[in-house]
Amino acid sequence: MKKLCAVLAVLLIVVSGKVCAEESQYYVRSFLIEKIYPHALGWKVMYITSRMSYATTYLPHAWFSQSSSKGGVQAKGEIVWGNNPAYPYMLIFWKDGKFSHARLFLKKDMRDVSYGVINPNQDTAPFNVEEPALEY
Which uninterrupted H or E stretch holds 3? Predict the structure, then answer.
């Protein structure tokens, strides 16, 4: 009887371990945001790379609109507003090796030092992207 209980316990551990060990189809990378610049066409994001240098990427407003989630298609962007001390940062998601979506975690108060001012007449070409250009 003790042997049967021990065998069942080991079997339960092995089966539950395999269920929990399934790999996700998503890969997520986080980036600390140094400065974020709101623009009529989107967000210019200055972030810190893993080499502790600055890089810039552009995220179009169309990715973050409610209408981009219609028809069962997930929006390419989401903004989480708050006052968490860890803000601002962004998460970039890839699904099966291809860009899926971006999530920005931003301070609610746009007077926060993390926000910058961008020239409204800036070249609009950088905002016309299908996926963010990132440096790691």
Answer: helix 2-20
The pLDDT assigned to 9 comes to: 56
Task: Give pLDDT, residue 80.
Answer: 94
* Residues of the chain under the 70 pLDDT cut: 1-22, 66-73
Tell me which residue of 34, 35, 32, 39 sits closest to 125, measured CA to CA.
Answer: 39
pTM of the model: 0.77
CB atoms near residue 114 (< 10 Å): 17
Q: How many CA atoms within 13 Å lie on the side-chain side of 78?
A: 10
Q: How many CA atoms lie within 13 A of 127 on its CB side?
A: 18
Q: Given this model, what pLDDT does residue 33 score?
A: 97
> Which residue range(s) make up the domain with 76?
23-127
The answer to whether position 18 is within a domain reads no
Number of domains composing the chain: 1
Distance CA 102, CA 33 (A): 13
Residue 116 inside a domain? The answer is yes
pLDDT at 24: 81
- Report the C-alpha gap between 131 and 20 in whole angstroms: 31
Q: Is residue 6 one of the residues assigned to a domain?
A: no
